[in-house]
Amino acid sequence: MSTEMPHIDPRGPKLVYVVIADHLAARIEAGELKADERIPGEIDIAANYGVARMTAGRAVKELRERGLVYTVRGKGTFVA
């Protein structure tokens, strides 16, 4: 199930930010995160996944590059 936290292995074959982005993308595709719904901020993502804020920010950037989310300055990041 997509709500289960992924195993994050810093020495694994996948980059950590990609693992996080893939997990959030799966939650979007499963309908757990709906269109125009705000996703957690970078600080919350970092805390939830046990990673640095920079890694969380890179995961959000990855989601933006995939066209799955958009960011409104001063408001947050939302599902596209």
Summary keywords:
80 residues, mainly alpha, Arc Repressor Mutant, subunit A, two-stranded antiparallel ribbon, 10% strand, globular
Could you please describe the fold and organization of this structure?
- This protein has 80 residues and is mainly alpha-helical.
- The protein has a single domain (16-79), classed as Orthogonal Bundle (Arc Repressor Mutant, subunit A).
- It has helices spanning 16-29, 42-49, 53-65, and strands spanning 69-72, 76-79.
- It has a two-stranded antiparallel ribbon with strand order 1-2.
- Helix 1 (16-29) crosses helix 3 (53-65) and helix 2 (42-49) crosses helix 3.
- The longest helix is centred in the N-terminal third of the chain and has 14 residues, at 16-29.
What's the gist of this structure?
With 80 residues, the protein is mainly alpha-helical.
Give the integer mean of the pLDDT values: 94
Summarize the biggest pleated sheet.
2 strands, antiparallel
> Total number of helical segments?
3
CATH topology: Arc Repressor Mutant, subunit A
Keywords: DNA-binding, Transcription, Transcription regulation
Protein name: GntR family transcriptional regulator
InterPro entries: Bact_HTH_transcr_reg (IPR050679), Tscrpt_reg_HTH_GntR (IPR000524), WH-like_DNA-bd_sf (IPR036388), WH_DNA-bd_sf (IPR036390)
Pfam family, one: GntR
Topology of this structure?
Blueprint: H1 16-29, H2 42-49, H3 53-65, E1 69-72, E2 76-79
Helix pairs in contact: 1-3, 2-3
